[in-house]
Amino acid sequence: MKPVRAAARAMLGAIFVVSGVRAVLDPDSKVAAAKRVTDQVGPLIERVDPRLPSDARTLVRLKAGADVAAGLLLASGRLTRPSAAVLAAGLVPTTIAGHPFWAVPQEERQQHQTHFLKNLGLLGGLLLAAADTEGQPGLKYRTTHAIDRSQRSVSRAVTRSQRSARRAVRTAKREAKIAVAARKLPG
């Protein structure tokens, strides 16, 4: 199964690397479409920290750089889950800004709808990649089972301690009887 995962990640990451490089080299080609989202997000960014860039061109370049980096990580099999999550998070505003089929003229609607659905398919693949544990148990499973093992271990330790304490009590009673009997013997 590992070769299938590696090939799928490489194919999934490739589209983000290629489109990211194109956008880094020519951000102006994406700025007009990005303005639909950046005009709404820009003021929020400025409120968070005025030093952060909030203009559409810079945000396009930052997102493109993140796409290249995360796409390369995903394709190379390094940090696959976080890189897939980064790509998925960036794909949502890109899809909304780039392919608003509901707001375009009828003659362009089908093309935008196809691209919108293609991006939804990519998003699904990225979500699968972000959730993929490569056959290893997930954190929830490992945590639950570690807790169960700990509880069983504590329970066994308590049982052994109780058994040991009962033996110690029996031994002490026996020793006490022997001591009492030894005192009663004429000496």
Round the mean pLDDT to the nearest integer and report it: 88
Class by helix and strand content?
mainly alpha
**Total DSSP helices:** 6
N→C terminal distance: 85 Å
Helix content: over 70%
Q: What is the CA-based Rg, rounded?
A: 32 Å
Q: What are the low-pLDDT stretches, counting only 5+ consecutive residues below 50?
A: none
- The geometry reads as elongated
Q: Main sheet? A: none
Strand content: under 5%
Order of helices and strands: HHHHHH
Beta strand count = 0
Structural write-up:
- The chain has helices at residues 2-25, 28-48, 56-76, 80-98, 106-131, 139-184.
- By secondary structure, the protein is an all-alpha fold.
- Helix 2 crosses helix 3, helix 2 (28-48) packs across helix 4 (80-98) and helix 4 (80-98) packs antiparallel against helix 5.
- It is elongated.
Characterize this entry briefly.
Helices cover 84% and strands 0% of the residues. The protein contains 6 helices and no strands.
Itemize the secondary structure elements and their pairings.
Layout: H1 2-25, H2 28-48, H3 56-76, H4 80-98, H5 106-131, H6 139-184
Helix pairs in contact: 1-3, 2-3, 2-4, 3-4, 4-5
Characteristic key phrases:
6 helices, mainly alpha, 187 residues
